[in-house]
């Protein structure tokens, strides 16, 4: 729907916006003489146009509502009719036959639960069921009717039944009923076994005279032969499979009949496996039919045979039984190996030949363990492993690959057992050496090592030769070194030598292994040889700790070997490791040597420090002459220096001095490019932590304990001077030297901290220490803040500020017990803040300076008032004076540094709030508020101030004056609410009027809402809470008059907030007056009035709705 909106014509007259008189569009206002106002004329025209559009909108809404209702009704009738049509069509629809189409598989059309059988399948089922019925009949006959006929009759009946069943399969097979034929053939062969059982049960032909196992073996063998021949006769595969299955228990039954032992049973099972191998050989090892059964039965039988032989070997009590069991085990492995050879399967030959090797070794080892004579089991097994290794080495040359790998791997597995025994003996001997060297540093030098005997050394040689025979030549050096290490570890225990000989042997082995390690061609070889050296050296060192002299000798040898080897090699990873190990052993060698010489702990500590100094000098020398080893020497020097907090503990000298000296050494190593990476930083961090640990008590007394004084501010209790030693002062100064070597700015806080420490060490009287901390901290803080910007200063500026700030804060906290000292400390803080504010390098620093200075000034003012004995009100005036000084500073900064003035102003206002809070009484609070209002009013008079800032100060001054008035009323105990609310409402009204004049678009609720709320809400609350004893007649009358006046003024000014608020107040007042006389009104009057009102509204509902809409529009048009 597209309509053209009619444009309302220009009105002939309009109210003059200046004087309110009726003006014309042609001549203007006749009262004030102003020309026609186009905007006022446009407002009147648009009002008329809006009224017309509103009428059209109401009509359009009513039309849309009616059309939507009609559409819903029509849609419901349409849906009902459509449902009836569908129901009728569905009921009358005829049943049509399926449409013709392409042929469909009958199997797809048949239901899933219905399965049709073919003729052949049905016949097979019938045959199978018939055969089963025959078997059941035979079983019943045998069990029930057997005794009712003679022996001849029984035999004839069973033979006839068996022959009948076996005669059917050939005919079934010729008709294609293979499944039925196989089933009946299996039934017939089963009946043959039943015939054998029947013959045994009636002692046919005296068969019970033989052993049951032998008779069962004969029946099984005969049945198997019959099944094999029958299968070939009828051409069915099933009888052949049955023959193989029936033949499986023949040899075990024979073993049972012969009452064979476990070895015999193993041989019988191996024979079964051989039978299956023969079947597989006949069928060319094809895994199908009887071949598949032969695979399964042969695998199970050879596995069981081997397990039975192993169990028998484990429980053999003599060499003979062990030999028999071992022979059975080898036979089982030989059968498996023969099968692999016949099958010509190389992978199978590889595995079975390896198993045969292991089986032969197990058999020989089991037999050898039961032989009488000397020698441990390790030596016997090692000898057998050596023989096996030699045999395998000879055989492998003649065997094709990969078959030859099988015996080789098996031989390696065999050698593993004695090798593990040797390793266990070596570990035991090494442990015994360490045990004999106990207690630490106090073991007897004549104590011998107990453990394995000399035969273990022969076992080591045998195992070593076995590995040499089997492994490639490139492993021989490693094997020889390993054997040498094993011999070195075993020798003290094998020959009952003193415990310190283990250290000697270990160092000899290490010395011999250095050269092969240097010649290693691969990383793996180098790592193995180096690990071997580390192992024997570690054992030698641990064992040598039994006596200080022995341990010192071991460390000295380590130093000589390490440094010497490194100097010979000159480069490479071995040189790096050896140089590092040699240098690491220097300090322990010196310490243990001096301990062996019974030198005091203090001398030992000094000697270790001398070693640290020498190592640092060596690091500098290595940089010039041995550049390749400079990192290693430097690293060891750093490590020894970093350990100073620990190794300095036993000495009698102050450990803090050693730690500080170590810091100097580390700093000397850090200069230039001598030390790179994170190691120097880690060493410095460790030493700093150690220094804090050794000087923590004194530093805590200076930096932490002063904060405890905050719990007793102005108590007058003078704290005692902290106890500090001169060693701590010296350590701080030495640390400052180290810090200066690392970075010059870092030395400043340490030097500054040494000043209060020195005063405390000298026993200076309080408050010398806290005030010195304040002075040093603030001086350093100011210097770090105002220092000229350089890369070094910028890198350390924040850290210096934090460090000096911590010192100053501790000093300020320590000065609080006495007001005079606290006044001095905060006065210094005020001066420092002013200096930073004036000369600070960046804006944040200057702002922090001004804020800190002004806050300190406030504290100074309050402390001065306390010292002067002023009462609470006087102290508040002094604090307010400090706040006024801050405002004066803000006056100056606002002209030159506006961004810094904001923080100062905030601090000044906070100080004024504090002054108000500590004023002590409403009267003094009124004075403080009034004086602050004067300060703010004066601040608003600053020349060149922006209007917004000036307005904010004026408003703040007005608010303070209002607060002062309220406090004054409270001091005079004034109870009239309007005395409090009327000034606030007037001020809010004036502020709203000013805001409307500056921003005409501002809504009247925003401009005048706070003033109206302040004027009416408290009075309404008082009237609502009044009772009969306090009727509040005058207040109710004045409230109604004030509400009416606001309503009229708002209507004249066309302002929404006064109209709504005044009307609401008038209505509420009228309702309250009505409530006062409610009991005087008859009960029927409210009901009658309510009824008439509802009837009237119902009669003219649409008209009332339009009236409400017009009222809403009229109110919404108010500004």
UniProtKB/TrEMBL annotation:
Q: Which UniProt keywords apply?
A: Coiled coil, Membrane, Transmembrane, Transmembrane helix
The parts of the chain that form a coiled coil are 43-77
Does Cell inner membrane count among this protein's keywords?
no
Would you indicate the residue range of the signal peptide?
Answer: none
| Regions crossing the membrane | 125-146, 152-172, 184-202, 214-233, 240-257, 263-280, 292-311, 323-343, 350-371, 377-397, 409-431, 451-470, 477-494, 500-518, 525-542, 548-569, 576-597, 603-622, 629-649, 655-675, 682-703, 723-742, 747-765, 821-840, 847-864, 870-894, 924-941, 953-971, 977-995, 1007-1027, 1033-1052, 1084-1101
- Source taxon at top rank: Bacteria
Q: Do you know which InterPro entries this protein is assigned to?
A: SCO7613_C
The protein here is known as Uncharacterized protein
Origin species, per record, is: Actinoplanes regularis
């Amino acid at each position: 729907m597209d309509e053209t909106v009619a444009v309302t014509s220009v009105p002939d007259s309009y109210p003059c916006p200046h004087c309110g008189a009726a003006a014309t569009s042609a001549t203007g206002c006749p009262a004030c003489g102003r020309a026609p106002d186009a905007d006022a004329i446009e407002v009147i025209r648009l009002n008329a146009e809006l009224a017309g559009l509103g009428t059209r909108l109401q009509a359009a809404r009513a039309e849309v509502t009616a059309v939507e209702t009609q559409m819903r009704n029509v849609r419901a009738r349409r849906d009902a009719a459509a449902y009836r049509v569908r129901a009728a069509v569905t009921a009358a629809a005829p049943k049509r036959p399926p449409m013709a189409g392409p042929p469909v598989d009958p199997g797809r059309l048949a239901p899933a639960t219905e399965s049709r059988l073919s003729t052949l399948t049905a016949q097979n089922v019938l045959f199978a069921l018939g055969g089963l019925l025959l078997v059941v009949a035979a079983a019943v006959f045998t069990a029930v009717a057997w005794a009712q006929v003679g022996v001849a009759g029984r035999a004839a009946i069973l033979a006839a039944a068996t022959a009948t069943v076996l005669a059917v399969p050939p005919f079934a097979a010729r008709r294609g009923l293979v499944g039925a034929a196989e089933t009946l053939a299996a039934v017939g062969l089963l009946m043959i076994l039943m015939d054998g059982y029947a013959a045994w049960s009636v002692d046919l032909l005296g068969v019970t005279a033989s052993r049951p196992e032998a008779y069962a073996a004969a029946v099984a063998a005969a049945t198997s032969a019959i099944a094999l021949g029958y299968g070939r006769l009828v051409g069915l595969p099933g009888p052949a499979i049955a023959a193989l299955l029936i033949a499986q228990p023949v040899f075990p039954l024979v073993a049972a009949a012969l009452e064979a032992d476990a070895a015999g049973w193993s041989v019988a099972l191996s024979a079964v496996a051989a039978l299956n191998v023969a079947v597989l050989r006949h069928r060319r090892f094809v895994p199908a039919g009887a071949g598949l059964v032969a695979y399964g039965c042969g695998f199970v039988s050879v596995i069981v045979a081997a397990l039975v032989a192993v169990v028998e070997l484990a429980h053999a009590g003599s060499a003979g039984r062990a030999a028999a069991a071992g022979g059975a085990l080898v036979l089982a492995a030989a059968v498996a190996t023969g099968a692999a050879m016949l099958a010509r399967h190389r992978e199978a030959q590889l595995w079975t030949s390896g198993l045969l090797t292991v089986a032969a070794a197990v058999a020989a080892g089991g037999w050898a363990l039961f032989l009488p004579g000397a020698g441990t089991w390790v030596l016997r097994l090692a000898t057998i492993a050596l023989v096996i290794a030699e045999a395998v080495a000879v055989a492998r040359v003649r065997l094709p690959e990969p078959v030859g790998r099988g015996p080789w791997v098996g031989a390696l597995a065999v050698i593993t057992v004695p090798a593990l025994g040797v390793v266990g003996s070596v570990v035991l001997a090494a442990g015994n050496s360490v045990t004999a060297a106990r207690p630490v540093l106090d073991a007897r030098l004549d104590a011998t090592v107990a453990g394995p005997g000399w035969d273990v050394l022969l076992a080591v040689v045998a195992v070593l030769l076995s590995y040499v025979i089997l492994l490639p030549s490139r492993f021989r050096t490693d094997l020889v070194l390993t054997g040498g290490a094993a011999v070195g570890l075993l020798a003290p225990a094998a020959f009952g030598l003193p415990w310190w000989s283990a250290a000697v042997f270990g160092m000899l082995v290490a010395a011999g292994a250095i050269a092969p390690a240097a010649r290693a061609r691969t990383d793996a070889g180098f790592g193995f040889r180096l690990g071997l050296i580390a192992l024997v050296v570690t054992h030698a060192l641990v064992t040598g700790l039994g006596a200080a002299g022995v341990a010192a000798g071991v460390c000295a040898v380590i130093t000589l070997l390490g440094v010497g080897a490194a100097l010979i090699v000159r480069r490479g990873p071995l040189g790096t490791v050896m140089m590092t190990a040699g240098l690491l052993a220097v300090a322990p060698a010196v310490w243990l040597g001096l301990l062996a010489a019974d030198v005091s702990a203090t001398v030992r500590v000094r000697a270790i420090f001398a070693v640290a100094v020498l190592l640092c000098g060596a690091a500098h020398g290595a940089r010039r002459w041995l550049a390749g080893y400079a990192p290693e020497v430097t690293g060891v020097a750093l490590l020894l220096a970093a350990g100073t907090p620990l190794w300095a503990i036993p000495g009698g000298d102050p450990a803090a001095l050693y730690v500080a000296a170590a810091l100097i050494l580390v700093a000397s190593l850090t200069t230039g490019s001598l030390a790179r990476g994170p190691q120097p930083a880690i060493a410095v961090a460790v030493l700093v932590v150690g220094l804090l640990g050794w000087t923590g008590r004194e530093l805590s007394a200076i930096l932490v304990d002063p904060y405890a004084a905050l719990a007793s501010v102005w108590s007058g209790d003078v704290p005692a001077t902290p106890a500090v030693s001169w060693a701590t002062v010296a350590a701080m100064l030495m640390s400052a030297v180290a810090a200066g070597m690392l970075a010059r700015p870092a030395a400043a806080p340490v030097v500054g901290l040494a000043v209060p420490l020195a005063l405390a060490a000298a026993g200076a009287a309080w408050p010398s220490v806290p005030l010195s901390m304040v002075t040093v901290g603030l001086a350093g803080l100011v210097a770090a803040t105002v220092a000229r910007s350089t890369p070094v200063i910028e890198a350390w500026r924040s850290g210096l500020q934090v460090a000096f700030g911590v010192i100053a804060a501790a000093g300020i906290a320590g000065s609080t017990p006495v007001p005079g000292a606290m006044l001095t400390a905060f006065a210094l803080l005020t001066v420092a803040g002013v200096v930073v504010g004036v000369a600070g390098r960046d804006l944040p620093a200057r702002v922090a300076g001004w804020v800190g200075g002004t806050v300190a000034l406030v504290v100074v003012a309050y402390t001065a008032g306390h010292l002067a004995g002023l009462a609470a009100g006087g102290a508040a005036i002094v604090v307010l004076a400090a706040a006024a000084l801050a405002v004066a500073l803000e006056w100056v900064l606002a002209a030159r540094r506006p961004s810094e003035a904001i923080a100062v102003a905030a601090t000044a206002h906070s100080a004024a709030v504090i002054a108000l809070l500590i004023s002590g009484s409403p009267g003094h609070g009124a004075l403080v508020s009034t004086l602050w209002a004067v300060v703010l009013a004066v601040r608003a008079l600053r020349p060149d101030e922006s209007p917004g800032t000036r307005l904010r100060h004026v408003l703040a001054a007005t608010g303070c004056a209002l607060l002062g008035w309220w406090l004054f009323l409270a001091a005079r105990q004034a109870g009239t609410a309007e005395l409090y609310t009327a000034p606030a409402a007037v001020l809010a009204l004036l502020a709203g009027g000013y805001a409307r004049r500056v921003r005409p678009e501002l809504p009247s609720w925003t401009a005048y809402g706070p003033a109206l709320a302040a004027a009416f809400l408290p009075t309404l609350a008082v009237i609502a809470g009044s009772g009969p004893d306090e009727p509040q007649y005058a207040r109710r009358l004045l409230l109604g008059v004030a509400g009416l006046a606001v309503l009229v003024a708002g209507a004249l000014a066309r302002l929404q907030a006064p109209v709504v608020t005044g009307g609401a107040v008038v209505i509420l007042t009228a309702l309250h007056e009505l409530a006062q006389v409610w009991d005087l009104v008859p009960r029927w009057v409210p009901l009658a009035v309510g009824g008439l009102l509802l009837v009237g509204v119902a009669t003219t509902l649409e008209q009332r709705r339009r009236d409400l809409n017009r009222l809403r529009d009229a109110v919404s048009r108010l500004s």
